[in-house]
Write a structure and sequence with these properties.
The chain is α/β, with parallel strands linked by helices. It is built from 20 helices and twelve strands. The strands form three sheets. The chain has a six-stranded mixed β-sheet with strand order 6-9-10-3-11-12. A four-stranded antiparallel β-sheet has the order 2-1-4-5, with no helix packed on it. Strands 7-8 form a two-stranded antiparallel ribbon. The protein starts with a helix and ends with a helix.
């Protein structure tokens, strides 16, 4: 509730005006039974047509005024609800962007998507309904009871008996269903996770003929969610029949008491009809209140789930040192000192006791078998993850001491998976540097071996790229990703197996063009191909998270068994 209040308080005016106009509408509505009573007793009873016409016009006037008040209240409540949801969604997205890879891995992408969409929509609906009905419905219920007392206090005792029973039913169901709705949203998270996984890995699923297994897994999760929703729905569904039973019993008692008192001459027929109308108003409002209670239970459950994400704080605290462009030639550009890494929730170390140093401008290859820790190693340089032992130094300073902006500007990373965003080529290139000129972009495209195919496209830099670069080949996407990193002109460039889709000639031309840059960046190349690393100044060989060799191609070929195996598996021996 505190989380919702943080955003709704920016719309204090709307939060006051929406219920106020609803209360005005309710006030006019409470006068309707009295007008109807007057028509029956005075108009019809005395055969006074002028009085009937006058009262009917009054009813129309009350209806028009009530409609205007209702529309006005709806406008203010919608403005407040949508504004609250917009602010919450904006800050949640901003908060998610501030989390490190560790927290993102722990929470899960599917969970975050559900929080951003479904959960916030539930909160929005809850806020909208609360502003419109939370005061109006109780006001009608108690107002109808008070108006009944003004007509006949003995008949109104039926209202006094019915309302506490109805309140017990409504709030009892609300309290019992609230934790269940949290479980329903958790089940929705699981469904979304399976769906996202299947859509992302559809090619792999089809390649291994696993469609039936995945359909079964989805069906099982969907059925579990279905059962849970049915169970919660059954409990929530008790609301209407139970309230109907109580209200209809009250109406029967009211008509019976009214009939007796009409015979005694203490009540008129119009007053009995008015009492009946007030009881009917209570019934209608309680149905609305029942739906409101269900929506509030959902909204509070979703707000609690959203708040759990806000409570997760990034474990990374950045320093205050601003990295200067360039390096001191006498200080290693990158240095690992007894570095170890264990992922959150993981068992054994992913990296163990890694130590090496790289001088400015050097090219370093990182090679090893699948799962040996290559990506984990280079992810420590831009500080995607924090080391669990030892330290990583850039230009002699621990990466934890740099400010976030200066560290990200100093180090550019090209990930394993080529990721492009919907927009023009120029838009994508400016992710590297928002102030980059067309000349800077063209130079980066030339170095990355992308200029040839970009110039053939209609519009060239203004050529449109579909989401995730679906209208490009794998090699074109990889080269544009490399160009985007080069636009930044980083001191350290990390290519994390980002040239796997390139042929050997293009790969060699790319490496040669990067090495000829002035100044040349300190280059880390992660690759499975020994041919891509043979000309590196030094090659780091990893095996099961441990560094089993470091040196030039010739040195490793002579003295590192793991490197020999990799090389011999890729090249025919004489």
């Amino acid at each position: 509730m505190k989380r919702i209040w943080m955003y709704i308080r920016e719309y204090k005016k709307e939060c006051v005006l929406a219920p106020l106009f609803k209360m005005l509408e309710a006030t006019f509505e409470l006068f309707v039974p009295l007008v109807v009573s007057g028509i029956i007793d005075n108009g019809i009873g005395n055969n006074d047509k002028d009085y009937i016409i006058k009262m009917c016009l009054l009813l129309i006037g009350l209806a028009v005024i009530g409609l205007v008040c209702s529309i006005t209240a709806q406008y203010f409540s919608a403005k407040a609800a949508v504004g609250c949801a917009t602010g919450m969604r904006h800050h949640l997205f901003k908060h998610i962007q501030s989390l490190s890879f560790t927290e993102m891995d722990t929470i899960g992408a599917s969970t975050l998507v559900t929080r951003m969409t479904s959960d916030i929509n539930q909160v929005q609906n809850g806020v909208n309904l609360v502003l419109r009905l939370f005061l109006r419905s109780p006001f009608i219920v108690f107002g109808a009871m008070i108006m009944a007392f003004t007509i006949d206090y003995k008949a109104a005792l039926v209202f006094v008996a019915a309302i506490p029973v109805l309140a017990l039913i409504v709030f009892g169901i609300m309290l019992s269903t609230r934790p269940m709705y949290k479980n329903v949203q958790a089940g929705l998270d699981k469904i979304l996770g399976i769906t996202r996984e299947n859509l992302t890995g559809v090619r792999v699923i089809r390649a291994f003929n696993m469609e039936d297994e995945e359909i079964g897994r989805f069906k099982e999760a969907n059925q579990n969610l279905n059962k849970l929703q049915k169970f919660v729905g059954k409990i929530s569904g008790l609301m209407n029949p139970l309230t109907y039973v109580v209200v209809n019993i009250s109406i029967i008692a009211l008509i019976w008491i009214g009939a007796v008192r009409v015979n005694l001459g203490t009540l008129s027929q119009g007053q009995v009809v008015a009492l009946y109308n007030y009881m009917s108003q209570i019934l209608v409002e309680l149905i609305k209140l029942a739906n409101l209670v269900i929506s509030i239970a959902k909204a509070l459950a979703c707000a609690g789930r959203i708040d759990t994400v806000f409570q997760v704080q990034s474990g990374m605290e950045y320093g205050r040192i601003k990295a200067a462009y360039g390096f001191d030639d006498n200080t290693p550009a990158v240095e690992f000192k007894n570095v170890s890494l264990k992922y959150s929730g993981g068992g054994d170390n992913t990296l163990t006791d890694i130590s090496f140093s790289v001088m400015p401008g050097e090219t370093v290859g990182v090679i090893g078998g699948t799962g040996s820790g290559k990506t984990s190693l280079v992810s420590l340089i831009p500080r995607f993850y924090d080391v669990t032992g030892g330290e990583v130094l850039i230009n002699g300073i621990n990466v934890k001491e740099y400010t976030e902006d200066s560290l990200k500007k100093k180090v550019a990373v090209v990930m394993q998976k080529a990721m492009l965003f919907k927009g023009t080529i120029r838009d994508n290139m400016k992710w590297g540097d928002a102030d980059a000129s067309d000349e800077d972009i063209l130079e980066a495209l030339r170095v990355s071996q992308s200029l040839e195919f970009v110039e053939k496209k209609q519009g060239k830099l203004d050529a449109f790229i579909d989401q995730q670069g679906k209208n490009l080949s794998g090699g074109q996407k990889q080269r544009l990703n490399i160009a985007r990193a080069l636009v930044r002109k980083p001191d350290i460039l990390i290519l994390d197996d980002s040239a796997s889709a390139l042929d050997y000639a293009t790969d060699a031309a790319l490496r040669n063009a990067i090495s000829n840059l002035n100044p040349a960046p300190t280059l880390f190349i992660v690759s499975q191909r020994a041919a891509s690393l043979m000309h590196a100044d030094k090659i780091i060989v990893l095996d099961d998270g441990e560094m089993v060799g470091i040196g030039t191609h010739e040195e490793l070929l002579a003295g590192c068994e793991v490197y020999q195996e990799i090389y011999n598996s890729q090249f025919k021996q004489d």
